[in-house]
């Protein structure tokens, strides 16, 4: 469903419109006043983003726990940032956001990171049905490496690079994890955590996947030789497309990604992929993540 920047501006023309939408969204049944110990009518105060109880006057911060709470950036700017992240296909850089929103680089960078953090799929259902899995090796910017990366950075399948592990449900969502190794001890638990037992898992014949049958999955391996034609249902084209799209984004938009932030970039790509067929505009799907994040913390 097409949701344009014009729609955004008319739905959220000012700060008060953003705040009142968020309060209705976060508290569909109304705000509970801790003093009155029940849901009471609350009114927005002049003071930034606080509401007060219509009975006793107690002040409440309805955005507490959300990414907006301690931020001095206007909600209208946050909403535009969220919109822009959902409206792009390849991703958006902090530099680009700085330019388009007219905020400082530091603010743009911080907003992007916080939004990517909430783009995680932690609360989503595990994948099921037909699942394609594969790893990707990302030559991340290692100029500033953490001690963990120094320890784990050199044990990829090809001996170097950061490792992303991807699992995609055909016709459904993708989950991407930045993992420290592609060994069976790391990948098998990742699969068991994210893929429902009994699912059909398609992969190449990499050794780390050999225990899948034993773990309760139906496992089909594809031979990656160039000379093999696609064999019926037995292919991993979906996950390969995810990787080529993600790698193109990293190269073209971000130039380099620090290993420390790789999971966040992966979240962003995975979120856009997984929500590509949502009935509502992706902008609203991302606002739902704001709510999930607030209620889980
Ligand atoms: Zn009250």
Protein described:
There is one protein chain. By secondary structure, the chain is of the alpha+beta class. The chain is built from 10 helices and 10 strands. The strands form 3 sheets. It has a 5-stranded mixed sheet, sandwiched between helices. The protein has a 3-stranded antiparallel sheet with strand order 3-4-5, with no helix packed on it. The chain has a two-stranded antiparallel sheet with strand order 1-2. It is elongated. About 5% of the residues have low confidence. The structure holds zinc ion. The site of zinc ion has 8 residues, from loops.
Q: How widely separated are the two ends? A: 31 Å
Widest beta sheet: strand line-up: 8-7-6-9-10
Largest sheet: 5 strands, mixed
Question: From the alpha-carbon coordinates, what is the Rg to the nearest angstrom?
Answer: 22 Å
What is the percent of helical residues? 25-40%
Query: Rough shape?
Result: elongated
Record keyword descriptors for this entry.
elongated; alpha+beta; 297 residues; 10 helices; 10 strands
């Amino acid at each position: 469903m097409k949701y344009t920047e014009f729609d955004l501006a008319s739905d959220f023309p000012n700060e008060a419109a953003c705040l009142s939408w968020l309060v209705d969204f976060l508290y569909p049944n109304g705000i509970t006043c801790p003093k009155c110990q029940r849901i009471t009518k609350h009114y927005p105060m002049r003071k930034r983003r606080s509401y007060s109880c219509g009975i006793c006057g107690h002040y409440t911060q309805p955005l507490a726990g959300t990414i907006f709470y301690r931020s001095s950036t206007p909600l209208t700017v946050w909403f535009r940032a969220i919109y822009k992240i959902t409206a792009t296909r390849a991703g958006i850089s902090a530099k680009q956001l700085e330019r388009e929103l007219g905020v400082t680089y530091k603010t743009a960078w911080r907003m992007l990171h916080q939004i990517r953090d909430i783009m995680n799929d932690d609360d989503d259902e595990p994948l099921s049905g037909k699942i394609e899995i594969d790893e990707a090796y990302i030559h991340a910017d290692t100029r500033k490496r953490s001690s963990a990366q120094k320890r784990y950075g050199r044990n990829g399948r090809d001996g170097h690079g950061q490792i992303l592990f991807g699992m995609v449900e055909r016709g459904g969502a993708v989950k991407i994890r930045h993992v420290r190794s592609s060994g069976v001890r790391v990948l098998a638990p990742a699969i068991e955590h994210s893929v429902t037992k009994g699912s059909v898992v398609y992969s190449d014949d990499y050794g780390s996947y050999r225990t899948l049958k034993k773990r309760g999955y139906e496992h089909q391996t594809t031979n990656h030789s160039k000379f093999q034609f696609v064999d019926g249902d037995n292919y991993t084209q979906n996950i390969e497309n995810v990787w080529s799209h993600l790698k193109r984004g990293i190269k073209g938009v971000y130039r380099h990604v620090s290993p420390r932030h790789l999971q966040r970039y992966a979240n962003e790509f995975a979120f856009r992929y997984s929500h590509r067929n949502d009935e509502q505009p992706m902008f609203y799907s991302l606002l739902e993540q704001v709510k999930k994040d607030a209620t889980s913390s």
